[in-house]
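Researcher: We plan to redesign the surface later, but first we want a full-length starting point. Tokens attached.
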């Protein structure tokens, strides 16, 4: 079926990188930043739906999708800023999943005047790197994953990572819809890169973890009930420490609830944005 809206695509310059984006619709600005296990196509169920009432933009982080990783220091929040400047967006609602949520939080702290509303989906946060703040489950996962990466066992590393994030660390696989799993695994496979493990972005200083109370935008925190223990706990922390934040939990969902349960996700986000946030 042909899309109901004209889609504009292109590349926004950001340092030596070129950040791929797509835009559709008119109205209030709404930007989608994807998770580190996918690319901007994870927002397929949202892109056209929200373009009925918003000017929707989605983009690929550098090193994902059509945006190439370059050999230079970078910050994902700066890439986001450069996409917005390229598209002449002065203020927008931001929806960020996982690492996209981390970038959105950093951006909201650095450019509060540009953020009308913030939606954090299974989001991380900069500065959360103290092993004492991580669960045994997460530490075990990362030690085993890095070990496989160091051995060059890409296939086993990819499979382990996909199981953890797409099915969920402890969810019964029988509860996962095959259509969702197949699509999520396809996006994961196409974006799993060993190279990214050797290149880390420049951290926000001071990091966001101790500055959540400084976020001024109305905030919706969305989490799947089968996501990792650490992100479930972090979502609750966001809801407590970010002023004017509310928490929504989606049942039988792991790290990509927008892709796994799009109708419910779209309703929750739409209600939030329509409420005046």
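Model: Full-length starting sequence:
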């Amino acid at each position: 079926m042909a899309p109901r809206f004209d889609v504009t695509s292109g590349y926004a310059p950001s340092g030596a990188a070129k950040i791929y984006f797509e835009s559709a619709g008119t109205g209030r600005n709404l930007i989608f930043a994807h998770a580190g296990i996918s690319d901007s196509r994870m927002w397929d169920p949202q892109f056209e739906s929200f373009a009925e009432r918003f000017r929707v933009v989605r983009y690929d982080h550098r090193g994902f999708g059509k945006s190439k990783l370059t050999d230079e220091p970078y910050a994902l929040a700066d890439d986001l800023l450069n996409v917005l400047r390229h598209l002449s967006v002065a203020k927008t609602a931001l929806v960020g999943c996982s690492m996209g949520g981390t970038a959105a939080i950093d951006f909201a702290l650095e450019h509060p005047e540009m953020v009308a509303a913030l939606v954090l989906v299974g989001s991380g946060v900069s500065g959360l790197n103290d092993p004492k703040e991580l669960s045994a489950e997460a530490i075990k996962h990362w030690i085993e994953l890095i070990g496989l990466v160091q051995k060059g066992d890409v296939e086993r590393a990819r499979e382990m990572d996909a199981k953890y994030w797409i099915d969920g660390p402890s969810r019964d696989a029988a509860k996962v819809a095959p259509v969702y799993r197949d699509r999520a695994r396809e996006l994961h496979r196409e974006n799993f890169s060993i190279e990214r493990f050797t290149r880390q972005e420049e951290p926000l200083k001071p990091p966001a973890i101790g500055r959540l109370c400084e976020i001024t935008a109305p905030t919706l925190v969305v989490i799947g009930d089968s996501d990792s223990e650490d992100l479930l706990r972090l979502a609750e922390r966001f809801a407590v420490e970010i002023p004017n934040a509310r928490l929504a939990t989606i049942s039988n969902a792991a790290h990509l609830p927008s892709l796994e349960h799009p109708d419910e996700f779209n309703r929750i986000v739409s209600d939030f944005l329509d409420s005046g946030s």
